[in-house]
Amino acid sequence: xxxxxxxxxxxxxxxxxxxxxxxxTAFSADPPKLGEVILWPRGVSGGNLGTAWHFGLGQGLFxxxxxxxxxxTLQIGVSAxxxxxLARKRFRGAGIVLLAILATMMxxxxxxxxxxxxxxxxxxxxxxxxxxxxxxxxxxxxxYVLTGFMKRIPLELEEAARIDGAGDLRIFFHVIxxxxxxxxxxxxxxxxxxxxxxxxxxxLIVQSPKMSTLTLIVTQLQAxxxxxEGVRLAAALVLMVPSILIYLGLQRLxxxxxxxxxxxx
Length: 265
Hints:
This protein is mainly alpha-helical. The protein has helices spanning 2-26, 47-88, 94-103, 109-122, 129-137, 140-151, 155-163, 168-179, 181-196, 200-205, 214-223, 229-249, 251-264.
C-alpha cells in the first residue's frame, strides 16, 4: 500500500510540478534567468499578466470568448438536429449522408485552408466574427457521437410521446435531448477544446489586431524577443485556464457520455 501511494504521488508530481512552475514563474516579481526553473515565486506580482494584457491579451481573450460562446452553441445545436434526423428518421441515403459528414474529418485543415480563405473572401467575411464562427459550426465529431447515442434511445419512448399528441419538435426537445445530456456534455467538452485551440483558421481569417484571438496573441508573445519568460507563461496560463474550468464543470456529463458509449456500444 505504501509503495502504491508513493507511486501515485510520483506520477502526480510529474504532471503537477510543470504546471506549478508555470504559475510560479508567471506571478514572480523577479524574472528567472534564461533556462532557470523555479518552483516558488520570488515575490508575488501581477506585472507579467499586466504586460501581457497591454500586449493585446485582453482583446484576444474577448474575441475568443465571443467565438467560443456563439460557435459552440451553434455547433451543438446544428449537430443535435442533424443527429436526430440521421438517427430517428428513415430516408434514402441517410448512410451516405453520414459517411459524407464523417469524410470531412479525414481532411486536414491545411488542405481546406486555401479554399476556405477564397470562399470567405468572396463572401466578404474575412476579419469578421461570422468568418471565424461559420467554419467551426459544421464539425463532424458531435454529429457522429450524437447519432450513435440517439440510435440507442428506445423507440417506445418516442411512440408514447406521439400517442400523447407530441410532434417532432416537442419530441426532440422534451424526450430526445434530455436523454442525450451525457453525449451533449461530451460533445461540449470536445467542441470547446477544438474551438479554443484553433490556430490555423484565425491565422488565415484575421487581418487586423482587433480581431486577433487568444491563440494568435499567445503565439506572438512566444515569438517575441522583447518579452520575458514570465510574460509568456502568464499569457499561456490565461489560455490554459478556461479549458480546465470547462472540463471540471462538465466532468460528470463528460464521463457519463464516455461510459455510456463504451457500455452500450
